[in-house]
Amino acid sequence: MSRKPTPGAARPVGTHFDGDLRRALLDAAIASITEHGADHLSLRDVARRLGVSHAAPAHHFGDKSGLLTEIATEGFTLFTAHLAAVADGGEDPAAELAALGRAYAEFAERYPAHFDVMFRPALIRTSDPAFGPASAAAFEALGGRIAGFQARGWRAREDTAALTVAAWALAHGIAVLRAQGSVARHYDDSSLDGVVAIANALLDPD
Fold first, then answer.
1. What is the DSSP letter of 37?
2. Domains and CATH numbers, the chain
3. Phi, psi (5° rounding) for residue 99?
4. Rounded CA separation 82/95 (Å)
5. What is the mean pLDDT of residues 4-14?
6. How far apart are CA 166 and CA 164, in angstroms?
7. What is the pTM of this model?
């Protein structure tokens, strides 16, 4: 007879996890990172949360780096879809860029565990065959938006890759500083609308 172990419970001999254990391990790891940060993730704690053998995470992911790499890969997939949902700004590329910056910060707020590991190569295996394409897709999606702006005349003579990195750096910097609480110490509005105002301070020519 199988049963689903309760979090923190010892795994009874002769029973097995009822459900998608790999997905459950990922979710447990995400919960742990949300609570304590990626630096403090422990495979034993992940297993304990599900009441399964401490060997279960290693069986599915190899080691902590493998687990974090899968979370980062999933994060980039979610991230690309999140940015893609930002509406076309029509004839106002600067407004669309500010909206992308808002979406970037919103993603960091909504998926803090994923965001914590996505841009930390020391914690993950960047050579992983799934991670590379997922990460590249996010950058290419942003680059595609930038290229579209240029086709409409916005900074048409500038290098697209340079503009993409600049936009990425601006959005990422605001999102990180906001998540760390630094924006709130230096700017009156640290809300997502405030992110738009900060971005517009540089992007809006007026």
1. -
2. 21-61 (1.10.10.60), 64-203 (1.10.357.10)
3. -65, -35
4. 17
5. 45
6. 5
7. 0.88
